[in-house]
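Task 17 of the worksheet. Students: predict the tertiary structure of the chain below and write it out as structure tokens. Keep your answer in the requested format; marks are given for formatting as well as content.
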Amino acid sequence: MKKGFTLIELLAVLIILGIISIITVPKVFEQLAQSKKNVAKSSSISYIKAIDKYELDERMNRNNIKLDGLYTINSNGNLTNETETINIELNGKKPSGGMVIYKNDEFQFACVTIDNFRTIINSDQIGETEEGECGTSTNEAYFTYDTNEDETLVISGFSDEYKNNHSNEKFIILPSTHEGKTISLIKNEAFKNSDIDTIIIPGTIKTIGNGAFWHSSVKTAVINEGVEIIGSGAFAGSELSEITMADSIKEIKSSAFSNTKINKITLGSNLQIIDTAAFQGCTNLDKIIIPNGVTTIGISAFAQSGLKEVTIPNSVITISEAAFQETNLREITIPDSVENLRYDAFYKIKTLKKATVGAKNIYSSTFIGTGLEEVIITDNVETINPGSFSSIESLKTVTIGRNVTSMDYAFQIENNQVSKLETVYNRSSLDLSTSNAFNGRTGYTIINQ
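Model answer:
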């Protein structure tokens, strides 16, 4: 006859089972949570693709469709704004909230909520999926406020309520109103050194104050239509890598984005001034299209950035000192609208091989230290100041425009340098055979045209 388990043996078995459950059950829940998170992320991506499909289908049906501005995702997973609701067809999980931003039919940014997980999607990058909702604005009680003379409000920072009880919330949507009053300004240094990941700024705010997010941990910023001025050092030294910019922005002030990790930015169509050092030290930024309407590119505006390509429009009048100094540009075209191309504007760009220059007045030392091989001076240019293109050994071909009247020592080299210059095409009335413009260079041919 077999003996049964003793009480001690039964207790031992129960203890072992308990230990096993303590180890395994949390892992099971963790795996379930991770699975839900993965589903939320893939469903969010599918949702954005469904919007793109909707847009394509509408165009195929010859319907006049244009996605532009901020859309809210309602509880049914459809897009809404002030004028319309767009039904988005999707096989699978639909979002229960969030927002999507398009600019002239181009996708810019989305925050999508599915199963209490939010996923951030930028134009060229899918961000993290984490617990929480996108919402429409962060709790008003999380912020402090001052009052302007016009009775609108200034948001001045985080409140003790946020700091003491909610500082783990890193996804921040600034409110547009508080106690019935419009918020029109972010105070200087309001969120300086703050530990947030994402900031969404509503269009009621006209000015982002100086140093507002200086050296913060913010990685993604969405600046909605209505914002007009980004203050000095607003995001300087922050972790910012992704930004959606409103067309309403008129001025980017000094050092606004300096030394950030921005890799892509679309500047708004109403922008007029890019101020001193606005993007200086943005080493991940390799391409920029400056919109038509910008008149001034400030001192060191893009200096020491990673720029390889830049488009300068016909509205630009002044390119300031060191504006593109020590970037990675390969070719540059400066339009005839430019009155003054100032000192060191393209200084020490060793990658620069070709320059087409239409600026009426080219200052000294503008292109010193470049790797230029070809220079085309357009008929708009009148003065090429001494030393503008001096000490460039790599230069092989130069074309001089019809209206150049002065270019003393403009292309000279030092006695210990070796010139590779082969041909100068001269369309001006200057006699280059007796000119000192190419002082120190020998063995080249002048072709008068």
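Marker's comment: Residues 7-60 form the longest helix (54 residues). The CA atoms of residues 129 and 427 lie 61 Å apart.
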